[in-house]
Amino acid sequence: MKKIIILTSLLICLSFAGPIFEFKSNVKETPKWIEESLAGIKQEINRYAMPSGVVGIAIKDLTSDESFSLNGNVPFNPASVIKIPVMIEAYHQDSLGIISLNDKMRLSNRFKLPGSGSLQYHQDGELFTVKRLIELMITDSDNTATFMLIDKLGIANINSYMRRCGVYKTIVKDPTMFNKEKGKHNITCPEDMLKLMDKMYNGKLVNAKASNEMLTVMKGQRHKWGIARFLPNVTIANKTGSLDFVRNDVGIIYANNRPYIISIFSRELPSNRGGSVMVGALSKVVYDVRSHCTLSNKNNDDFSNS
Q1: CATH 3.10.129.10 fits 77-188, yes or no
Q2: Which of 47, 73, 104, 250 is the most buried if burial means most Cβ atoms within 10 Å?
Q3: 265, 243 Cβ separation under 8 angstroms
């Protein structure tokens, strides 16, 4: 019989050279891989985010269900990570027959946004399927494709479905994603995005077919500056997000037959380049620790990666 893991919250204040982090875990006794990950995470945050930066991270082992977070419920500007909820709502509306992924949308000047993506350079009047816009939005972080999809799906519908998915701190407010004014920019938190990726991995986001298709799209990610930066050739399904002094990345690392979710958000960083390196370094810490630690299965049988 499957052994039920009893959730416990440990609200421990950890001092990271000044800032206070809220540590939360769902295990009674902290396993070695979490302890060692925390030590490495502390070192990298001190190195790259201090003195001004705020960092949140949430991680879950998808085999044992062990998880932990630091500042997991702290709100952050998601930047382009907000494109994950947009994709989810597109598949949701497709499942209901409200739209079809094969519907064609016409590009016009009013949708063209600067920054990531090539659609801004295409001619007015070109047609793209919803499915193609999703692919461009996720794999190339195309801002114009995102604006077109949000316009079709509706901000209220995206936010409503997020509540149905059980995430309550993820809110789309700005379809351009460029508004930095407090109270007007999009928001999310590390644990919200971890929850969405967990549902997707387990085939429970919209439905099993949609979950699988969304993961396939995310595995085609072309932006490798974040959690993939220092990792070996391993399959990753992720979405990056960046603005000035903001560096975020959320995804599933399919490593050593022990996949795990990592959700990293930051703001007020000392430098953009340092922030990008930090996200990669945090990811590498967790990957390396999990590569040499003995991990547990759901039934608490030992499983060694060594």
Answers
A1: no
A2: 250
A3: no
Burial of 66 (0-12, 13-18, 19+ CB in 10 A): buried
Write out pLDDT tens, residues 262-287: 999 999 999 999 999 999 999 999 99
Average pLDDT, the chain: 91
pTM: 0.91
Could you identify the residue written with the tokens 């022990």?
Answer: 258
d(CA 97, CA 87) in angstroms, rounded, equals 16
In Å, the largest CA–CA distance within the chain is: 60
> How many Å apart are CA 76 and CA 119, to the nearest integer?
27
Q: Exposed e or buried b for every residue in 219-233, given b needs 16+ CB within 10 A? A: bebebebbbbbebee
- Helix axes of 130-139 and 143-153: crossing angle, nearest 10 degrees: 130
Angle, CA 186 vertex, CA 153 and CA 19 arms, to 5°? 155
**Domain ranges within the chain, ordered by starting residue:** 1-73+189-306, 77-188
